[in-house]
Amino acid sequence: MKNNSRKIKVLHCVGARPNFMKIAPIMQEMSKYPNNFSQILVHTGQHYDKEMSQSFFNDLGLPSPDIYLGVGSGTHAEQTGKVMIEFEKKGIKEKPDLVIVVGDVNSTLACALVASKLSIQVAHIEAGLRSFDRTMPEEINRILTDKISDFLFTTCEDANTNLLNEGISKDKIHFVGNVMIDSILKHIELAEKSNILIQLGLRTNGDINKYALITLHRPSNVDYKETLGGILNAMNELNNEIPVIFPAHPRTIKQIKKHKLHNRINYINNYSSYKPNSIKEKISIFPPLNYIDFISLMSNAAMVLTDSGGIQEETTILGIPCLTLRPNTERPITIKQGTNKLVGNDPQTILSEAHNIIENEVSQKKAPRYWDGKAAKRIVKVLTSK
Ligand code: UD1
């Protein structure tokens, strides 16, 4: 991005939990070039609970947001609309040269749309991922954000193909690798020092027990009583064999209460009060976990069960078997080259795939190209050389 007379003024936009670990390496890389960039961090407030937001700022060394929009929860239209209204005021006042958006959440699309209409250039980090499932709100956010972005930074070659197939000009597409992997590689050593395994009684005398880690929050898995109930039953069965640890998203906890499924689980507010051997008949559900402890739990697990996007990538780089409780993925490279397998949400299929992992050695696969901790460096290089 040429700006000969002065620094490039960048507005970084974050809103929800999976955004924070993507923006941190970019901000840190840009801060090495104070003569080239001035940076402003905008937090839309889509996620606002301490465990969903502030704890990630602390763990990732992110500065406090310069601008907090405080939009909170709502329907998709309410949330997207509120971000647009508030972000437009800031865009007009700050007049940045570039707005950087990451991932596929409602805040991503809202900020990109506002910037584009204010004639501010937009860079989309993690462009081109497609599940080809338009029932997912994230898929709509991805398609529309890509359409109006000026810089499309991709994590894998199939994303480049998707963008070209949608008629996006080749010179806007930059294959730079995966900033989420920059973050996990940077924090893995710190995660090795985490106490969470000891706290949960999963590490005794240096040995680590076999356990499974699960996360779940997609509407297709948690909004319907029968589906959510079926997954919880499968997890309870698995818990008879190995402890199942479930740090739950607030929306999942709400749905468990709404569907009156709380008798099928133990809700434990405090990680220290868990005992792996005493509660076998029901899985234990905990509040959301901070970034460092979560990496520790993920990297020592026998398997991870999830419907998250980013966790499919993180388990790939960690070499941990991952069962994705969805019928599709926008990250097929984690299946082709990583440890990921799509299993849907049928309880019997989930259980038989989990048994398969317990009983058989899972082959390690290789890391995808450019998932090497240097994606942010490549992004900054593109922005300073264009
Ligand atoms: C959002 C993203 C999803 C991402 C996920 C990660 C969209 C469309 N979806 O989904 O892509 O994988 O974040 O977490 O943007 N809530 C709280 N406290 C919070 C945040 C949310 O209680 O700090 C509750 C709210 O009641 C809200 C519900 O969780 O209604 C859902 O939050 P929302 O931001 O709408 O989407 P997510 O399901 O978190």
Keyword list:
single chain; 386 residues; 7-stranded parallel beta sheet; 16 helices; 43% helix
Q: How would you sum up this structure, described in words?
A:
The chain has 16 helices and 16 strands. The protein is an alpha/beta fold. It is globular.
Quick gist of this model?
This protein has helices at 17-30, 54-60, 76-94, 106-117, 137-148, 157-165, 179-192, 196-199, 219-222, 225-239, 250-258, 291-300, 310-318, 333-336, 347-359, 375-385; strands at residues 8-14, 37-43, 67-68, 98-102, 121-125, 151-154, 173-175, 203-204, 207-208, 212-215, 244-247, 265-267, 283-286, 303-306, 322-324, 340-342. With 386 residues, it is an alpha/beta fold. It is globular.
Strands side by side in the biggest sheet: 3-2-1-4-5-6-7
Bound molecule types: uridine-diphosphate-N-acetylglucosamine
Q: Major β-sheet, in short?
A: 7 strands, parallel
The portion of residues assigned to helices is 40-55%
How many strands appear in the DSSP assignment? Answer: 16
Name the structural class.
alpha/beta
First-last Cα distance = 5 Å
List the helices and strands and how they pair.
Blueprint: E1 8-14, H1 17-30, E2 37-43, H2 54-60, E3 67-68, H3 76-94, E4 98-102, H4 106-117, E5 121-125, H5 137-148, E6 151-154, H6 157-165, E7 173-175, H7 179-192, H8 196-199, E8 203-204, E9 207-208, E10 212-215, H9 219-222, H10 225-239, E11 244-247, H11 250-258, E12 265-267, E13 283-286, H12 291-300, E14 303-306, H13 310-318, E15 322-324, H14 333-336, E16 340-342, H15 347-359, H16 375-385
Parallel strand pairs: 1-2, 1-4, 2-3, 4-5, 5-6, 6-7, 10-11, 10-14, 11-13, 12-13, 14-15, 15-16
Antiparallel strand pairs: 8-9
Uridine-diphosphate-N-acetylglucosamine (UD1) binds at residues 16-18, 46-49, 52, 73, 79, 104-106, 137-138, 217, 249-251, 308.
